[in-house]
Amino acid sequence: DIVMTQSPESLAVSLGERATINCKSSQIVLYSPSNKNHLAWYQQKPGQPPKLLIYWASTRESGVPDRFSGSGSGTDFTLTISSLQAEDVAVYYCHQYYAAPYSFGQGTKLEIK
Amino acid sequence: EVQLVESGGGLVQPGGSLRLSCAASGFTFSSYSMHWVRQTPGRGLVWVSGMSTDGSNTIYVDSVKGRFTVSRDNAKNTLSLQMNSLRAEDTAVYYCARWDDSGKGMDVWGQGTTVTVSS
Questions:
Q1: With contact defined as beta carbons under 8 Å apart, do A20 and A80 qualify?
Q2: Of B38, B45, B111, whose CA–CA distance to A48 is shortest?
Q3: Phi, psi at residue A22, to the nearest 5°?
Q4: Is CB count within 10 Å lower at the N or C end of chain A?
């Protein structure tokens, strides 16, 4: 089974500053036929379901602000929020959908400093 | 509007059964694989089960194999999860999610339904 490990567990960033969340998978999640990493990032606010932000490690879902970006390949991935807004306070999860059982990171709680 | 609405959660005793449903609308349900994911404060998000578009293929996490059964009715745009022999550790919020086979993975989620297994 693929284990997803996120860091840090929590993060406090000032408004307008950059936030960076890391995710490491225990195995490569690169899907060879498409040459795309099957790695997604979700945002979850209290009382709400997870919302897809990024798929294929770096492709923004429709409607997601461009301050959100994803990068990485192989086993190391990063979610970056370039200029933190108040509405970005949430828990962020990385997720591999390369192989079942599909798995999630433990989450990173992002707060305003 | 694309929407998934779960129902059927509740309080059940250990060893009991519960059937969850997920009603889909706003998209062609029969064209999408569908999945269940559960969430607890302690264990975070855990993928539970998935089913192919026509129901011919199903997959489960090891911890629910032999106890949970996923099914779908494409005529009624409904996904179901029959949960038997429930344990305290099955207590969670259960989400259904649409799987985009073009490569996005789970792109639309319902609001969730809460299952509590307790005596």
A1: yes
A2: B111
A3: -110, 150
A4: C
Q: C-alpha distances in angstroms, B116 versus B17, B69, B99?
A: 11, 18, 26
Per-residue pLDDT reduced to its tens digit, B64-89 = 999 999 999 999 999 999 999 999 99
Contact A101/B62, CB-based, under 8 Å?
A: yes
With a CB cutoff of 8 Å and minimum separation 6, the contacts of A6 are A21, A22, A23, A24, A92, A93, A94, A105, A106, A107, A108
Note down pLDDT in tens along chain A; length 113 residues: 999 999 999 999 999 999 999 999 999 999 998 899 999 999 999 999 999 999 999 999 999 999 999 999 999 999 999 999 999 999 999 999 999 999 999 999 999 99
What the block records as the tokens of A33 is 């036929």
Residue A100 touches partner B, C-beta closer than 8 Å: yes
Nearest-by-CA chain A residue for B39: A49
- Could you tell me if B41 and B53 are in contact, meaning their C-beta atoms sit under 8 angstroms apart? no
